[in-house]
Each structure stands twice: as C-alpha cells, then as structure tokens.
C-alpha cells in the first residue's frame, strides 16, 4: 500500500487565514467595519497564556481588532459575568472568547451562558450546540471540530456522504460537536468513550477516525481500517527515555501512517486549524451582525 497522505495543518490554516483576511478587507471596504475579537483570560495558566498570545497575534495579522481582558484568578463570578455582559453590548466586539479552564470558584456553564449567542465564537453556548444538533446553518461551530471537518472534506473531495465515522471521546468541546457535524454531512457516526465495550472493534470499521481523548498514542495500527482518514486532536506531553519531553497525539503516528490513507501529525495538524477557525468564526459573526 502506498504511503498515507500527511495532512499539513499549518499550510491548511494559512489558506484559511488568507480567506479570512480577504473577508475582513471586504468588510472594511464595503461596510466600514473592522471585526473585533475580545479574549478574556482569567489567571496565569501557562498553556492558556500561550494560546491567548497566539490568538491575539493572528487576529491582528488578519486585520481584525483584538481586545484583551486579563483578570486576576480571584475575580468573582459576578465580576466576570458583568465583564461578559459589557462585551455583549459593545458594538466594537463581534466575537467573545473566554479562555477555559476557569478557576474552580467560577461556573464555566454560567459564564458561557452569559455570552450573547451571536458573539459566541467558540460555539459553546447551548443555543449554538442546539442549532448544530438540529443541522442549522446559523450555528456557530466549535473551532476544533470545524477545522477537522474542513481537512476531512478536502481529503474526500468535498463529500462525506455514507462514510463510517468513529469519534473517540465525548467532550463538549470536541467529541460531541464533531459527531454532530459528521452526522450533518450524512456520515454514519459512532461515538466511543471510556465505557465502550470494544473500542478497537468499533475503530476498525471507521473510514473516518477522529481521536480526541487525551491519551498518548492510544490508537494503534491494528485499530485502523486500511485507507482510513485519521484526524488526531490529542496534544499530550510525554517524557522520553532521555528525560526530555515531546508532544504526541492520541494516535501512534509512526505505525498508523503505514496503514491509513491520510493522517494529521501532532504538532502541525489540527492545532493550527483551531485558531484559524476561531478567526473564521469571528469574521462570520461580524458579517452576520452587519447584514
Ligand atoms: N481552552 C482550551 N481550548 C479552548 C477553546 O477552544 N476555547 C476556549 N474558550 N478555551 C479553551
């Protein structure tokens, strides 16, 4: 069998960003609008700091306005809700992203519910999850699953009808919306999780396998149907024998690439697409708000 296609998420994301930049320019030229993304960061979680820095940089590179709101970890829930309500009313803000996780004393559900659904560029608000589940085009779709879908559609020439898709993991951020998106594309979708009886058996039937569990290199070569498209959402830091650390996905990349038809690497696969889709969602939100 010929080698698998290694899907270049970095190059793909660059194309998405170029499209977003063009849309931003059009909004400026024809509507006199500069889309704005507000990012709220509570506390000093190092991973969140890195994400937020990248988001801010790329937002500006696409010609959009980035508004950053950093708050101490002891901010009260009420103060954070008040900040969100203010952003809902701010006409310069078209998209709102509250970086997760939040400190334990703040309810993430309450904060997400406070975001105006039309500005919810993460697609986490129940209005948006409901719109996605009912197949509405008006849904704001969570960024990581949206990026995965774009890469899958590209690999399959645009049509996923009838494909058997297996999603490994049932998180609200990735697994559940990914399943809904693939169902909307007329795939036959199975979601497997830690209580599934025989995950391996389910995976072996998949034409499309999306792994989002956070378990380093869990998915092995024997689990893969020859020719399948494998999308690896996992980002796991593991320690090597020499004591150094490295990033690996949920898929055992080196062995799986010998049997699958296409695979996303970690890093350089899904990761870059997530931020690109956040920018795409922000410009979509701005267009809808200025129709
Ligand atoms: N933390 C990790 N990933 C995400 C994401 O996609 N959105 C938000 N808001 N927080 C995150």
Please give the structural blueprint.
Elements: E1 5-6, H1 9-31, E2 36-42, H2 46-61, E3 65-71, H3 77-89, E4 95-98, H4 108-114, H5 126-133, H6 143-155, E5 164-168, H7 175-184, E6 188-192, H8 199-204, E7 208-211, E8 229-232, E9 236-239, E10 245-248, H9 253-256, E11 262-263, H10 270-289
Parallel strand pairs: 1-11, 2-3, 2-4, 5-6, 5-7, 7-8, 8-11
Antiparallel strand pairs: 9-10
Catalytic activity: (6R)-5,10-methylene-5,6,7,8-tetrahydrofolate + NADP(+) = (6R)-5,10-methenyltetrahydrofolate + NADPH; (6R)-5,10-methenyltetrahydrofolate + H2O = (6R)-10-formyltetrahydrofolate + H(+)
Binding site for NADP(+): 169-171, 235
Protein name: Bifunctional protein FolD
Ligand set: guanine
In the predicted model, the low-confidence regions spanning at least 5 consecutive residues are none
Mean pLDDT: 97
**What characterizes the major β-sheet?**
6 strands, parallel
User: Alpha-carbon distance between the termini?
Assistant: 50 Å
Question: What's the name of the CATH homologous superfamily of the largest domain?
Answer: NAD(P)-binding Rossmann-like Domain
CATH topology of the largest domain: Rossmann fold
- The structural domain count equals 2
Helix content class? 40-55%
What would you note in describing this structure?
The chain has 291 residues and is α/β, with parallel strands linked by helices. It is built from ten helices and eleven strands. It has helices spanning 9-31, 46-61, 77-89, 108-114, 126-133, 143-155, 175-184, 199-204, 253-256, 270-289; strands at residues 5-6, 36-42, 65-71, 95-98, 164-168, 188-192, 208-211, 229-232, 236-239, 245-248, 262-263. The strands form three sheets. Strands 1-11-8-7-5-6 form a six-stranded parallel sheet. The protein has a three-stranded parallel sheet with strand order 3-2-4, with helices on both faces. Strands 9-10 form a two-stranded antiparallel ribbon. The protein is globular, with a radius of gyration of 19 Å. The termini are far apart. Guanine binds next to strand 4.
């Amino acid at each position: 069998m010929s080698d698998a296609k290694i899907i270049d998420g970095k190059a793909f994301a660059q194309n998405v960003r170029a499209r977003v930049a063009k849309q931003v320019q059009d909004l400026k030229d024809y509507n006199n609008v500069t889309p704005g993304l507000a990012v709220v960061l509570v506390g000093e979680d190092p991973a969140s700091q890195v994400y937020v820095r990248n988001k801010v940089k790329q937002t500006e590179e696409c010609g959009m306005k980035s508004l950053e709101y950093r708050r101490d970890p002891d901010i009260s829930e009420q103060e954070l809700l008040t900040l969100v309500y203010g952003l809902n009313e701010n006409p310069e803000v078209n998209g709102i992203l509250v970086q997760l996780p939040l400190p334990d004393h703040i309810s993430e559900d309450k904060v997400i519910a406070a975001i105006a659904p039309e500005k919810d560029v993460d697609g986490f608000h129940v209005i948006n999850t409901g719109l996605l589940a009912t197949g509405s085009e008006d849904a704001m779709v969570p960024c990581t699953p949206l990026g995965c879908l774009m890469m899958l559609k590209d690999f399959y020439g645009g049509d996923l009808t009838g494909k058997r898709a297996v999603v490994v993991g049932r998180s609200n951020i990735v697994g559940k919306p990914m399943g809904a998106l693939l169902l909307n594309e007329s795939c036959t979708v199975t979601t497997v999780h830690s209580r599934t009886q025989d995950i391996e058996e389910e995976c072996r039937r998949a034409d499309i396998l999306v792994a989002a569990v956070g378990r380093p290199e869990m998915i092995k070569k024997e689990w893969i149907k020859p020719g399948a498209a494998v999308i690896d959402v996992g980002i796991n830091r593991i320690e090597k024998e020499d004591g150094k650390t490295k990033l690996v996905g949920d898929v055992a990349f080196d062995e799986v690439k010998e049997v699958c038809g296409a695979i996303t690497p970690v890093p350089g696969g899904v990761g870059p697409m997530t931020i690109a889709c956040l920018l795409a969602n922000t410009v979509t939100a701005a267009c809808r708000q200025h129709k």
